[in-house]
Amino acid sequence: MLEGLPPNNASHMLRLDCDEKRARAVADLIVETFEPTETAAAAFELDDGPRWSVEVYFASAPDEAQILALIEAAADAETARAARFSTVAEQDWVENALAGLAPVRAGRVLVHGAHDRGRRRPNDIGIEIEAALAFGTGHHGTTLGCLKALERIAKRRRPRRILDVGTGTGVLAIAAALLFHQRVACGDIDPVAVATASANARANGAGADVRPVVATGLRHTSLQGQYDLIFANILAKPLRLLAPQIADAATADAELVLSGLLARDVRGVLDAYRAQGFFLAERGDIDGWATLVLRRGGSSSAPSLSLPR
User: Annotated binding residue at 233?
Assistant: First the structure.
């Protein structure tokens, strides 16, 4: 799973094989140490046995000694010695990561590649997403958790003003636009992600309702206003920092869907939003990643859902 966000124009990478515990520890420490626009880490199980692999992608040539020291701190010296650095073509790492991925379903929403168009059922909302320079296809636990939250929200209400903060590939904005037949305001700090999301929206018949803009948080004229559904699938630190902006943009009856955070990050994020008057209504966990649904007022006796893939 990807533990972080993809850097712009990734040019270098690191790979090492180890056990699951060390792989997760290394990926976690890398993500915590570097800015998400500069470095991303992916930890995943290998097909041929119990071993795991860690891949780290860098926007520029890394300080190899610093990275090896971090790996040794997170795991041990033997794991650090197994690390191998290399250069990478701009799109190779995403294409390799997404190659052969199966369709992902969340209720009526089916996220798939071109080769799986035939798997759509009648009345499905099919979203076709191919390899691109921004991650977020529904296969990662955070995106899937948000899609499942969207499915549950759709059963109880019809949001009329929707915002997607940190849109990535645009899959959440596209799903919301197609499900609710509403325009979805969305932005991302990464111009490559914005271009990718725009292309994906047009390809999926949502180009008129999903028009991403380059923005830091909500700082863009097209994102100003009040929203009754706000998605933010980013990382724990920006979620905390953006709490005042997101709260200001939320209507009195708004629901927030927050993800991009590991289980250990939940308390800090919740504290930031409780300070803005929100409480935890629902929590879902997939592959160690938490998705939170927040509302204003009330109490925090929220159900915790261990969501299936």
Answer: yes
